[in-house]
Amino acid sequence: MNELMIMLFAPLVAGFIAWALDVRGIREAVGVLGTLVPLGVLAKYYSTIAGSNPEVVTQTITVGGFKLIFQLNTISWYFATIASLIGVAMAFGMVSTSRSSYEWLFALMSYTGVLGVFLSGDFVGFFLFWELMTFASFMMVLKRSRHESLKYFVLSVIGAYAMLIAIGILYAKIGALDFGTIRQALYMDAMLGSISKSLTALVFLLFLTAFGVKAGAVPLHVWAPGAYSEVDQSYTAFFSGALSKAGAYGFLLLYILMGAKLVAALGIWHNHMVFSYIIAWLGAITVVVAGFLAVLQEDIRKLFAYSSVSQVGYILLGLGIGTPLGFTGALFHVLSHAVFKGLFWLVVAALVLRTGKTRFEDFGGLAEKMPITFAMSLIAVLSLAGIPPMAGFASKWLIYEAAISAHMPLVAGAIFLGSALAFAYVVRFLYAVWFGQRPSDLEDVKEAPLPLLIGMAILAIPNIVFGVAPGLVTEYLGKFLGNPVGGNYYKLVTPTGTYNALLVAVLLVFGLAIAGLIFIYGAKTRRIPVTNTYQSGNPVTEDYNLSMRRNFYRPLAEALDFWLKYSWDRFYERLAGIAEDFADFLREGFYNGNVQSYAWYLAVVLLILALWGVL
Amino acid sequence: MFDWKLALEAIGMVIYATFMGFIFMGIERKAMARIQRRIGPPIYQPIIDTLKLLGKKESVSHGLIYDFGPVFALGASITALLFIPIANFQLFSSNADLIVVAYLLEVPMLGIMLGAMSSGNPYSALGVQRGLLTMVAMQLPYGLALIALIQHWGTFKLSNIVALQQVHGWSITVPALLLAFIVFDIVFQALLGLEPFDIVSAPAEISMGPMVEYGGKHAALLFTQHAVQLFAETAFFAVLFLGGASNLLELLVKQIAVLFIAIFVASIYPRFTIDQAAKFFWKWPTIIGIIAVLLTM
What we know:
The structure holds two protein chains of two kinds.
Chain A: H1 3-21, H2 26-50, E1 57-63, E2 66-72, H3 74-97, H4 101-119, H5 123-144, H6 146-174, H7 179-192, H8 197-215, H9 223-229, H10 233-266, E3 268-269, E4 272-273, H11 274-295, H12 300-321, H13 324-355, H14 371-384, H15 391-405, H16 409-434, H17 450-468, H18 471-481, E5 486-487, E6 491-493, E7 498-500, H19 501-520, E8 524-527, H20 554-559, H21 561-564, H22 568-590, H23 595-612
Antiparallel strand pairs in A: 1-2, 3-4, 5-6, 6-7
Helix pairs in contact in A: 1-2, 1-4, 2-3, 2-4, 3-4, 3-10, 3-13, 3-17, 4-5, 4-10, 5-6, 6-8, 6-9, 7-10, 8-10, 9-12, 10-12, 10-13, 11-12, 11-16, 12-13, 12-15, 12-16, 13-14, 13-15, 13-17, 13-18, 14-16, 14-17, 15-16, 15-17
Chain B: H1 4-35, H2 45-54, E1 58-61, H3 64-82, H4 98-104, H5 107-119, H6 122-153, H7 158-168, H8 175-192, H9 203-206, H10 216-241, H11 248-268, H12 274-281, H13 284-296
């Protein structure tokens, strides 16, 4: 048995064992082991993949007449390792938060699906595992909310059909399904031009829909807030951290397989490849729209769901820039988004587990009750807000550099706006959950359980390590992108800019030391309670509400009221309503229960068939 | 191996920047007073104030994060300062470019907000909200102004931007960058927290917002932070648009010029409300910014 197969199916098998045995303790142990196996196998292959003479590990199996190719190359190793890292953290989180063998089964099944998507070397395996992943995550959502799962289901089905049609067209034109042949054929065709422009554009549009749904690009993002909220939050770490990356991987695949053909067919506009420019703008719009929506949310899960959508927009934007630097930034952001957003979701899982609440208005003052979880969320906040020297900054910095040097100023402007929005919503999270007055029913909240804390630590460490040493990632990515970023482990050097993460860290410590000295040698401090604050001379007791938890960003909503009147979500709901009404009308019109009219239908159909010459 | 000269320069620059920052704060108060036909405090008043605050026997605290906030803010301001090429002192500017510095200049705000939020005071919370919304509002034109600048000079490195300006003339002599300069100057009012964008502290409305709870050494730290930040931001402005400087005196003249523009604007205009500010920033400065980036493309 090949190790790739072990790695691919270990989570699935573990999931089934956990589901079948369903004994507390064993279930969790098997689950965690199942997620650790892929990480172990990937670690073993590191030297083969990233060594001095990298080689591609390939494995072919035959299932029902189809030959499935799986391969581990530099790109798939990168994506699979990120997914596995989040997978392990998810498993530790689920040990604490999940009591259901159903959830273990489908969580681990989607893990196998994601790995399969990354490892597939042909469209058969790619599509099968893509559907496995979608199915498993759909089942996770279904358990909590039927409405949200339906929304997710409908959009996923649209995406799946789009992908199937696109694959079908490619198969009809090329006659092969494995990536290598397709890639070669399309490169040849870029010169020959035997596949027409409109057909290429159609295939592009279909893939854009398929991958856009999974990545949550606006306007196909509507499933994400509901689906991310209505599952076990430990699983959301994986859902948003790894599953959405499958969409990003799909876009990357689009470049690898169809890049040359798309440039040839769609042309170049003002030095930008048109297809890539579309992706960049899709990303930019996603960043801004989802960012604004995230700022205005009142539910902690919705906030991070929209934030996930917004951050995946950065990845699309980076890919859309289409230069090696842009790819480096985007792929780095795949890693940093996975680790900081995974961390955020585990923090949310801990909060939901310990308090049972999800709305901001019910939280407050938890920093003293859950200090370690608070510290973890602070790391995640610093990373997401892009504070140097965290991983989130390094990747955003690369995307900035890439966008501006590729002369996409308006797209780069969108990132500036998106970063400010990110800053705004994470601070809102910090304020509402951790600081201020504590509601009386949160007095006996305890620190998060140990397994969940382990899961958080697994994700917190990469945030700092890859933040201080971003060169580790860019050097690895440089292997297949032709080293657009120079420097060493600590210092990134692009042709026009430079960022020394270690030096920023050292100087930050230096600055903190100076400020700390002033603080330490200053007067002694006396601790006072939250009620002892300046209130224009009014004495305050605990009965007063001192916190602003609801509608925190009301003025922004007022400034945006014109735009907030429009919503994609409501648009789709209305479309669904119209479709339903129309179907009702058809049903009532045709299936009226009158036998005579049924006889007429039969006669008409027969007549049509006869005229057509079938009968 | 350890570069003693650089270390000494850095420490010297921190001391100089702190001192000059306090003087800038003094100038700000004095000039504002003169415009309003008051006499105003002496220019060194902020230094006396800070020393007084440091000399307090006891200061109150709302917990660890409340203490950490001002410390972090000052630390981050010092970090940002050390990455800006200040006159003939390059300091560490070869290690970080414009984007990094622009980000580092925003980090102190997170520190102030962390501390303010942990105090639990509703005025602080309101200040935090207003601060972040101002930031959201101003970020788009701010980004566009920076992008225009980078596109025109073709580099992200601050030291290269200075060198190029010394050869080709100041940024503001280029028509497209003059537009970027106008945008940047409007945003600059918000960066410094001056009218018409002093929405964050708004003394008459929310009692200094984030700073309301702070007293004693915490307030002293925040004063010092403000001084360093003021120096760093004016220097950043001078480096980007006014051709940098070859010595500290030249830089000082430019910094004070920048400061005076800010003071004059601040003393004429009343305060915007936050949604007015957002709508304003997303209209004219953004349009001018877009024109600037398209012209430099």
